[in-house]
Amino acid sequence: MSIRYFTYILSLAMVLLAVGCKNKDDKSFNIFTIADDKNLGLQVKNEIASDPVNYPILSETQYPQAYAYLRGLRDKILNTGTVFYKDEFAWEIYIIEDDNTLNAFCAPGGYIYVYTGLIKFLETEDELAGVLGHEMAHADLRHSTDQLTKQYGLGTLISIVLGDNQNQLTDIAQGLVTLAFSRSDETQADKFSVKYLCPTDLNAAGAAGFFEKLNAIGGSSPPAFLSTHPNPDNRVNKITAEKVELGCVGTATNDAAYAAFIASLP
Predict the structure, then answer these.
(1) Does any domain span residue 22?
(2) Nearest by Cα to 203 from 266, 136, 158, 258
(3) Chain mean position to CA 227
(4) For residue 233, what are the contacts with CB-CB under 8 A and spacing of at least 6?
(5) Which of 98, 142, 155, 214 shows its CA 20 to 30 Å from the CA of 222?
């Protein structure tokens, strides 16, 4: 073990012993710092940007209306004051042009990617906001770092954070698209999706409408989202119950605005 590696581990251990988890809802014991999440996320973002074959990201210059709409929806969530790392994480958002994929994911540090297939599958703004909130919660609660640690091993991720194992970034970038979260992580992300939307004018249980649509698809080949996000039968009911428990009163779905957003896409 190098002195640099040992010093890094020792420093992290001291931080963990001193402060533990940042918030009461974060049940993980994450060895990575917030700076590490941001650094890893930025590196993954750069890797994705360098691979337009697998990640054909729409140009903001060509589709300014679409990006303005998505950023407005993102800001509506961030401005509720319920996102723990609102000011620390980047919360950049990108659209991947792939009409055949129903998926979205958020890299550590708040780098959000939404596929056109998912956008066109949905019908209302509250449904997309519910999905955005869900993915943002995975980053905000640092679920991705937890799962990446289990999948790739602590040593691999630390070496990447230290800049010593850049070749592994390609695998991690691809792995984030197919990263499977635990059922407890999914339940927590659903809960926070409702919590994020509750102060807005939108229907805070928008994610429930999305999962109802996924359940209706069924079949032997589930969408990409279901392959990475376990979908227990009672998920819709739990989201709706969370809305009632929190006393959320928003009912807006903004169908017309959402239709205009879809029309602005290729």
Answers:
(1) no
(2) 258
(3) 15
(4) 215
(5) 142
* Separation CA 265–CA 118 (nearest Å): 12
Are 183 and 29 within 8 A, CB to CB? no
Q: Look at residues 171, 180, 131 and name the one whose alpha carbon lies nearest to residue 44.
A: 171
CA distance 108 to 261: 27
* Distance (Å, whole) CA 212 – CA 166: 40
- Can you point out the beta strands (E) in 103-255? 104-107, 111-115
C-alpha pair distances (Å), 35 with each of 38, 78, 79, 256, 266: 5, 20, 22, 40, 36
More confident residue, 192 or 14: 192
Counting every residue, how long is the chain? Answer: 266
Q: Is residue 257 helix, strand or coil?
A: helix
Which residues neighbour 71 within 8 Å (Cβ) at sequence distance 6 or greater?
Answer: 93
Residue 29 within any structural domain of the chain: no
List, as one string, the DSSP characters of 109-142: TTEEEEEHHHHHH--SHHHHHHHHHHHHHHHHTT
Torsions phi, psi for 39 (to 5 deg):
-70, -45
pLDDT band for position 28 (cuts 50, 70, 90): low
At residue 233, what are phi and psi to the nearest 5 degrees? Answer: -60, -30
Coil vs helix vs strand at 111: strand
Residue 28 within any structural domain of the chain: no
Q: What is the mean pLDDT of the chain?
A: 84
Q: Are 127 and 261 in contact (CB under 8 A)?
A: no
Instruction: Give the global pTM.
Output: 0.85
Domain count, the chain: 1
